[in-house]
Structure prediction request, 113 residues.
Amino acid sequence: MDAASQSALHGGMITVAAELGASEREQRAAAASAAAALELVWGQLHAAPWKWLLILDNADDSAVLAPDGDLTGGTGWVRPSVAGVTVVTSRITDEARWGNHTSRFAGRRTSHL
Prediction:
């Protein structure tokens, strides 16, 4: 999932909710409100009948991941869940900005082919 901009992430997450069974009415409401989108998507993910892996790529702007500006609270697009795993690729290296519900795995830079 492209997390480089709010519009890309918001639209992609509504698509995830649709794939998990969200109604068209729910999708329209989520398209109109970031808060509604967050609740819809996470409700659908928590209720999914299978384990899931969500990858948020290029998440270099914390305001995109947490509309309220607080990544540490676990109420934005990055949340803890027993139903699945969220992996975030980001250049944000300050562990304090991520909160204690995350684990950081530092990778190394790779060359482009």
Summary: The chain has a mean pLDDT of 86. The longest strand covers residues 52-56. DSSP finds four helices and two strands in the chain.
